[in-house]
Amino acid sequence: MLKLFIEGGMQSLESALSHNRVLEKTELEHAYALLGDRIELTNYSNRKVVHQFEIEFCNALANDDLHGVATNSCTSALKIALLALGIGAGDEVIVPGYGYISDASVLEEIGAIPKYVDINLKNFCMDIESVSKAVSEKTKAILFIHMFGFSGNVIAVSKLAKKYSIPLIEDIAHGTVINRLGNPRVIHGDAACFSFNQTKIMSAEEGGIVVFKRITNALKGKSLVDNGFDRQLGHFNGIGYSYRMTSFQAAVLLAQLANIHEKVEKWGQNYEMYYEMLSSFELFATPYNKDDVIIYFPVMVADPSQFDNLNWIKTMLDFENIPFMNTNDEVLPKYLCNDFNISVLKNSEIVAKSNIKFLLNESIQMEIIEGCVLALKKIQNRLIGNTPE
Asked: Which of 115, 200, 222, 377 is catalytic?
């Protein structure tokens, strides 16, 4: 009989093993080699390593003639993407109902009006039928979130955006420059934003980048991240923000970019191990994707009658020493729209009530994955039984 630790059983992991991302010595050595023995602290326009990163990151993607604007975070990148594409106060933006708060907060900050649409339960991305119904003459942009790294219906949404001449912005905070097959990522939107915070495949602890298809948008973005300084004019020209990426961050990211195929392979191996061990569970559902680089392994409580037990499940995982992401991706209108009718976002609500995210980074070893599987077996046995020893 499998017993939980709080019921007298052994802990699934004897101790809380480290699962945090680390910057490897080779990455730091590569970064120092790029920076040299000394760094001249000049203005942003002369930070050659940042410019080099912007160019090499764009070159790693499948599209020709992309233009990168490095930022201090992906949240900043999202804001810069919207403003550079001319989105502002009073403009309606279609956005999925489920995601991270940054996607809602940047719209609120610039005064845009979010129009929430539901997601597809197969891939956690916005549902194409919901988007089609939501498009109107008021629609000024579509914000597509690659949730957990899934690409979902981005191609269909892109075609719809082009049909109505609506700018499309991709939030690829959970993705990277290649897919699991090693092929360069195709950017479908007018702009795409990436994250380099501590949980991402490429990480400088924090950072972001927005890539544009049009140089005019990129030049506007470069001015916005540098307090409104216009490099072509040589002086300040309008509003701006201090959203610059540092040379230190850029050097670390260049080192990781050179090693991206190895990183993606390791994350993919961990994803496959989780899926193989958990796909037969009755209480939990585990979506599968062989092409996309998935940043977290999402496990859904499959039985709606058990949704109310989600917090209890997470507490049991803590007692069992199992690492998982305990951030609250939520139904986005809950953050900012107190009078929003959540019932129209049925699938978004289901995912928010039922998902647990397990880490896939290079620090996740087989012992952690096996411990996670054992803990989930105990939980399933406690809630519904029928779990093999």
From this structure: 200
